[in-house]
Amino acid sequence: MRTNIPLERTPAGMPSLDRRRFLGVSGAGLMTAVLASCTGGGQSSEESGGSSGAEGTIRWWDQFRPLTEMLEQDLFTPYTEAHPGITIERRQLAAADLGQALQVARRSNQLPDVHTLVGLDSAPAALVSEDWFQPISEFADFDSSPVADQIFDGLHRFDGEIYSVPLFSARQHQTIPWYNTELLTQAGVDPEDEPTTWDDLRAVARQVTDNTEASGIFLPAQNPNYLTAIVTQLAMAAGAPGAIDWSTGEYVYDSQPFIDAVEFLLSLQRDGLVHPASAAMIPRDALARWAAGEGAIFPWGPWFIGDLITESPEVVERGLGCWSIPRPGAERHSVRSGPAGGVFWVSTDSGQPAVAADLLLQMTGEDFQAALASAMDQPPALLETVETADVHPAYRDCVSRFAEDVRIAPAPEIGHPEAWRVVAEMRAVQPDLGIIVQSALSGEDIDVAAQLRTFREAASAERDRALATVQQEGIEVGLDAWVFSNWEPESDYMIEDYEGR
Amino acid sequence: MTAELEQLRTTHPPAPPAQPRAGVLRRLRKDWWIYLFLLPTVLGYGAYTVYPLLASWWFALLDWPGFADQGTFVGLENFERLLADDLFWNSFRNSLVFLVCAVPLRVGLALFLAILLNRKKTPFKGFLRTLYFLPVVTTGAIIGVSFTLLLDAGGPISLALVQSGLLDSPVNFVADTGTSLFAGAAVWVWKWLGITMIYWLAALQTIPEEVHEAAMLDGAGPGREFLHVTLPLLVPFLVIITLIDTVGALNVFDLMYTLTAGGPAFSSEVIEIFIFRTAFGASVPQLGYASAAAVLFGLITMGLAVAQAVGVGWARRSIGGMK
Predict the structure, then answer these.
(1) Topology versus the membrane, per the UniProt entry (chain B) (predicted)?
(2) Whether residues A98 and A207 fall in one domain
(3) Range of the domain at A128
(4) Nearest chain A residue (CA) to B259
């Protein structure tokens, strides 16, 4: 057997090699090979794709599950066919994971070329100032794009350069009562007979609970952010200006409309109209159970149908529709929503800013916006494309209701160039609105009004602290950045209004 | 005298002059491949254990929003904020309650099962061992999601309790501020019971059969035999198993996050979820503050462990003195 020949028996002149030495040399060789193969983990697209601007790989991260097919069919495939040197690698992450993934990727120099900001979107200007992104205005003519009038300083444009563009409309909210037509019919409710008030909605939910095996309404309470949005929007429908009264700049979390909105939700629960497992659900769980026919009404956002089509298209065929956000009485109040922020941003490390800018410019075009509408996620920035797009009638109905129900609110970041510094400095105050509502819905015996007052005071104190911290750095910004004295609650706050406040 | 000294000199030759530096270098040169093989372990341990440990101490001294490249040194300010943060103490208390409730239950229940499965007369022992071990190899996140459905108000557990008359109305165990933490602890015990049972089975099999036979010949019943023979012999294992399970009880992020996400209203937020929420979940992530929470929790836990060791030692000495 050759392996039994002692290794010492080497030809004259060759160094002798005992077993230990052999193992040592082998180990060194193996490690060298391993190290040599470990060079592909962190290179940017510039390195992997070559130095030419027309070639390479664009890495793309977002959280838009309903847009998966549309992005591939209507943007990436046509673009890569027209630019054979370009490949696009898209990764869809859960919204809850994306913010964390971006932070980790940033620190390991592995940010994708293009990404959304979910989870880190409290102050995009702070990220711009930390050099996360590169401007894209020099690579494409965004000022002539169809969304040019929706591009604002402090949101998309910084120091005169555009970093991102709005792709979705600001005219939306997420308290749309989506209903299961089949269940309503079983319960003897005519979906056309719209419940416009809180009591009307309660009556419909009761009718479903009494006459079918299903629950009246879903109120997924495990996610406090969902509850915050729902309560704030119901409070606005009840007459609150929003979380902030823009005419004074003060927080109003403890105002009567907020208290009434919380009490309305609690009364639904007390009356046994809420799905019994709602407290342990996040909205996506509730959607799955709504699709399974366990409940009739689920207040959520315009992406409802888009999500359902991705998961269970047969449910959409079964029949669904939506109503307007209900209000406590006959008086009609609008829901306010701030201007739409940028959606996709181009990493400062990207070696393909021209390609990324070109893709983003295409996304602002009417063709893409119509395709975006047909995916039935958030409504597109060019809302009029919904009228002619291939969408479900209920989605078209939902978007047309936004035109009546939603008004654009002012944004301090647009009105004052340094306001973002305060927003970025502010820390989360707990327990916040969502947590207070969650406590109450979980059966804890709390004084909601007192808790809301404490939260309002804590939020104001935190903003004052953040303001003081920023002012100590020599930045000139005050509480007046939150005051828009010419704000009319039932009107859109337009760009020209910022000048006249 | 001179002769004696001479004898001493010859019988106890002086030690060679110390040359540690040259020795180490020579050894390095001679046995370089040994250190080469050790290098991956040293690098791995350094990169994934020592560095994060030291880094977290440094980070704890920084005001570091997650989106910034680096933080600003603020000294002990994060610790001052933590000491005044009710939610930190809430999560700290939750972690301790979890520990105190879940670890004795897991250790005790596993011992009980191990004793049953160690008996010769028990049927289907192999099948039962596999059955109890199955949850161990199931992902914590999957278990969390499944038990969310099982434990909600419309789930089978709540309905069974109502139908058996133990509950008046359905309870949402994972979404009730009074039960969510305990529901998490119960699921954790269920998940990990199998591995602790295996530890106990291994421990029981170290006790010679002759010892049991001798106890029976002396007229001891099963209870007395367990109390006076088996249990004393298991005490060293009890210490180790409790330690392992205690460490496990401080690593429950995946299960608790998927089961309750720390809610409702922070009622089941253990320290790991607090750290995660502060570092990644907030709209403005606070890495320095989250690191300070981790460091402070580690220090307090270490302090408690030392106090416990001192207390146990003192108790043992007292018992010894009484004898």
Answers:
(1) Multi-pass membrane protein
(2) no
(3) 52-169+340-364
(4) A280
Looking at the structure of chain B, the number of domains it has is 1
Q: Of A364, A399, A430, which closes a domain?
A: A364
Q: Quick check: helix, strand or coil at residue A393?
A: helix
Is residue A101 assigned to a domain? Answer: yes
pLDDT of A493 over the 70 cut = yes
Nearest CA in chain B to A109: B69
Within 8 A of A222 by CB-CB distance, chain B residues are: 175, 260-261, 263-264
| Domain-located, residue B97 | yes
* Nearest chain B alpha carbon to A32: B36
Range from A4-13, A366-375, B264-273, B290-299 carrying the lowest mean pLDDT? A4-13
B164: domain CATH number is 1.10.3720.10
* Separation in Å, CA A255 to CA A307, A340, A411, B265: 34, 26, 21, 22
Asked whether residue B306 carries a pLDDT value surpassing 90, the answer given is no
Q: In this model, does residue B322 exceed pLDDT 70?
A: no
Is residue B132 included in any domain, yes or no? yes
What's the per-residue H, E or C state across B12-27?
Answer: CCCCCCCCHHHHHHHH
Q: Are residues A433 and A360 in the same domain?
A: no
Q: Output phi, psi for A161, to 5 deg.
A: -115, 140
Give the type of residue at A340: A
Q: Is residue B165 part of a domain?
A: yes
Higher-confidence residue of A171 and B213: namely: A171
State how far residue A85 is from chain B, nearest Cα, in angstroms: 33
- Tens of pLDDT, residue by residue over A444-477, are 889 999 999 999 999 999 999 999 999 999 999 9
Terminal C-alpha separation, chain B: 55
A297 within domain boundaries: yes
Q: How many domains does chain A have?
A: 2
pLDDT digits (tens, 9 = 90+) for A350-408: 999 999 999 999 999 999 999 999 999 999 999 999 999 999 999 999 999 999 999 99
Put simply, whether A115 touches B (Cβ < 8 Å) is no
CATH number reported for the structural domain that contains residue A69 in this entry: 3.40.190.10
pLDDT above 60 for B17: no
Per-residue pLDDT of B144-174, as tens digits, reads 889 988 998 888 999 899 999 888 888 889 9
* All residues at 6 or more sequence positions from B140 whose CB lies less than 8 Å from its CB, including other chains: B191, B252, B254, B255, B258
Print the domain residue range for B295: 79-306
Vertex B103: Cα angle to B99 and B108 (nearest 5) = 155
